[in-house]
Amino acid sequence: MAPASEQHNPKTVCVMDASGRFGSTLVQRLLRRGYKVHAAIQNPSENQGLDCENKNLKIFQSDPFDYHSIIEALKGCSGLFYSFQPPQDQPTYDELMAEVEVRAAHNVLEACAQTETINKVVFTSSATAVIWRDDRKSSSSDFDERHWSDINFCRKFKLWHALSKTLAEKTAWALAMDRGMNLVCINAGLLMGPELSITNPYLKGAAEMYEDGVFVTVDLNSLADAHICVFEDVSSYGRYLCFSHVINSTEDAIKMAQMLDPASPQPQSHDQDMRMIQQKISNKKLNKLMVDFESGPQVD
Predict the structure, then answer these.
(1) Of 158, 247, 257, which Cα lies nearest the Cα of 211?
(2) Cβ-based neighbours of 145, under 8 Å, separated by 6 or more
(3) For each of the chain's 300 residues, which pLDDT tens digit applies?
(4) Which structural domains are found in the chain, ordered by start?
(5) Angle, alpha carbons 158-88-128 (nearest 5°)
(6) Where are the beta strands (DSSP E) in the chain?
(7) Among 176, 13, 20, which Cα is nearest to 87's?
(8) Which residues on neighbouring strands pair with residue 216, listed in sequence order?
(9) Can the peptide bond before residue 17 be classed as cis, meaning omega within 30 degrees of 0?
(10) What positions carry a catalytic annotation?
(11) I want to staple 129 with a disulfide (CB 3.0 to 4.6 A). Which of 72, 84, 166, 182 is the partner?
């Protein structure tokens, strides 16, 4: 039983970090579903379209490296939606980012363990924490939630995004199991949108992902729906691969290349290579969970 000062509405949740495109969209969707939302952002100047006038929205300046600011944002909340936002002074993924992301995950999960009102944590991870392994070409089965990227393989080929996501997610699972927390992870594909560029760290190894049939993307609304669905469904557990599309044809690959670099030359013809790469990754677990999910109005 939580102390009287910490009594909470079961529909009060925290979104951290709420400043990015995904975080702010998730906040909007939750508000529309009747939730009260604590929007935790690192930098108030990065408030991306949050409706500060909404009486059901409270905005907190919260740094995942400042334990007390996390505790403040979580007070009275029954759940947390957590996605890592790289610090302003270290915006690019490199060898050191894994340590930064692991430390942030540890702080946030520890704060959740110390907040009696928190019943469930939805942790945003990545498909890159699933697909990078030495034996990926020889495996006869599709990649699914049971697979983990190999840490040594990621280090060897400098797949820093995959390394960071894998280590951070493993840290979250270890802490959740130790503290008896209800944790669910969304292993998302590459998030599509106007801000996507060739510098996105997810794209390291894109050619290999394409050839292996595991290059997956997700649109904003599908990703937000998945997070809300696994939070609301009491039967949700473990990890969920989340993607809307598989890049597995020449046409798909050309469209992606043009989107990432509009200045790149348009191929003269690709008639000779109309093959479809066999899809080798499955999101059946999430699809099954979302069969009866009603998403409500979409956010543009």
Answers:
(1) 247
(2) 130, 187, 238, 239, 240, 241, 285
(3) 344 444 556 699 999 999 888 999 999 999 999 999 999 998 776 666 777 788 999 999 999 999 999 999 999 999 999 999 887 777 688 889 999 999 999 999 999 999 999 999 999 999 999 999 998 877 778 999 999 999 999 999 999 999 999 999 999 999 999 999 999 999 999 999 988 989 999 999 999 999 999 999 999 999 999 999 999 999 999 999 999 999 999 999 999 998 888 777 766 655 556 778 999 999 999 999 999 887 765 555
(4) 10-191+218-243 (3.40.50.720)
(5) 35
(6) 12-16, 36-41, 57-61, 79-82, 120-126, 183-188, 190-191, 216-218, 238-242, 245-246
(7) 20
(8) 246
(9) yes
(10) 165
(11) 166
Residue 191 pairs in a beta bridge with: 218
Distance CA 280, CA 150 (A): 17
Provide the residue type at 20 as one letter: G
Q: At what angle do helices 97-113 and 160-179 cross, to 10 degrees?
A: 20
Residue 273, token pair as written in the block: 């290579």
